[in-house]
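>> received
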Amino acid sequence: MALKHVYQQVEDTIKQIVPPTVKISSIEFEGPLIVIYTKTVGEFADNGELIKKLAQSLRRRVSIRPDPSILADMETADKVIRELISEEAGITDIFYQYDTGEVIIEVRMPGMAIGKYGATLNEIKKRIGWAPKVIRTPPIESKTIQDIRGYLRSVGKKRRTFLKKVGDRIVRGMSDKQNWVRVTTLGGWREVGRSCALLSTANSKVLIDLGLNVSSDENASPYLNAPELMPLDSIDAVVLTHAHLDHCGLVPVLFKYGYDGPIYATQPTRDLAALLQLDYIKVSSSDTRKTPYDSEHVRDAVTHTIPLKYGETTDITPDVRLTLHNAGHIIGSATAHFHVGDGLHNIAFSGDMKYEKTLLFNQAVNKFPRLETLVMESTYGGRNDNQPARKDAVEALRAEISHTLDRGGCVLIPVFAVGRSQEVMLVLEQLMRQNRLKKVPIYLDGMIWEATAIHTAYPEYLNNQLRKQVFQQTENPFLSDIFKRVDSSEMRNTIRETEEQCIVLATAGMLNGGPVLEYFRQWAPDERNGIIFVGYQAEGTIGRKVQRGWEEIPLQRYGSSQSIKVGMKVSTVDGFSGHSDRRQLMNYVHKMDPKPERILIGHGDESKCMDLASSIYRRYGIETRVPMNLESIRFR
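>> returned
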């Protein structure tokens, strides 16, 4: 169907539903939305059922926006907003979203900014045209979020042009080819790292994740030269399950080599991915390694990201709809559920997931309207990969730290900046508050503080209890005075050389770069000190070598090699992983509704993938497969 004809059909449908008193300026396809621009936005606001009826009739998400001609310029709008909202409300930021026609007003006291029955917001809207939205000021300021807001503000027109292009591509119509659905495995199968898969239909190509294997130079990248993937501009969309580098680390490469399409992810995933990708460039440069992309390609990825909320169903191609669901792994992590065709096939990619409520998140969702195929991870899928209960893990961590402090040493905990850092912070804060652990300074080095700030900016992605605590100044565990941010190399050197006892949480979690190596170099020879691993250590990483008891560790620094003797106590405390253990993985399948017809298993060492697959088949009678990289599996 010609694009012009599609527009005409949509326009005719809208005219049949919208009352003649509503003045429509234009109708646009912008990304996955049908956007109706109008100079009489109030007519829609007064008729709550109208938008719902439009969405049902058009079978698409509909957004109503003010015509750009009625929007005040930002300087005028700022003055009006500050004039109408009292100083007591505490405005901390105002930012404009050109692609939505919204002005986001960040305040310390939202109730005072909204006004009785929304009176203040209504007056703002009447005087400036922009649709005001009030949000509470996060308790920790995030430089990443501020930078992204500023950047998106500067590329507002470019982004709107991009969204129109995506919208036209989604409604371009479908060919009369035979219907089929298949998945091509491009990375992270029978291994951990460089996760990547391609979902293909007769009309669409959707790339799920594009990760980097940080522990391997030879197999760092997925098979991006696979013929199914070429040319890159034939890809309709990229979907990111979460922001760890083994799932998002190479996304900017696409924009370096000509991709100009959308990325779909949650907002926290967008922000954290940019943070980690920029840090990857920085760390690689300091180690004199060549990076596969530059910061401009990270900015391109941000520009092209279309954020989605959990449970929000969105057309991303002519025949594929996407819904993201909580995966419980890190903030914003998602299981990606795809509805292909008109009921042709439903497939879900679990990403990394945790099927258990944690101190940070609710457990992963495993209930879907329909599901024929499940793609799931198996990081801890081996028969013996059962982690201790959380209370036992907390006690084990307390005991290991106490032993080291009793010896007069310092404790080094290598952590991933996102997820495990915040989980361990919550545990340590609780132990010290309850006087179950000696109070010593806890230093946060690397990106931990910034990642924690992003957690507090998106409380809706945290579990219910923590969400409430985050905005209570006296109860927010992240604001405890036991935590000290390391914000300079001078401060880091002082901590490394001091005789004061302390605990250091530092990145990277596998000792494969970052500030953690500076502490390790200094403290490793001293047997009074201790290093505690709380996360997965991949094969080939320095962390795995230390964990296995190597007495000397070769390290590169400024292009030269040095050997570090390991005298410090090395211990591992399981139970803090953001991945499901063997019991949880089996339970995830057992309680899944509906049960899938088949399961593809990846993201695990080969033996763990095979073991989990055979166990699921024997216990539940579900067809299971363990593909290798570069296999294509057809479902219809």
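>> The chain has three domains: 71-137, 173-383+579-634, 390-572.
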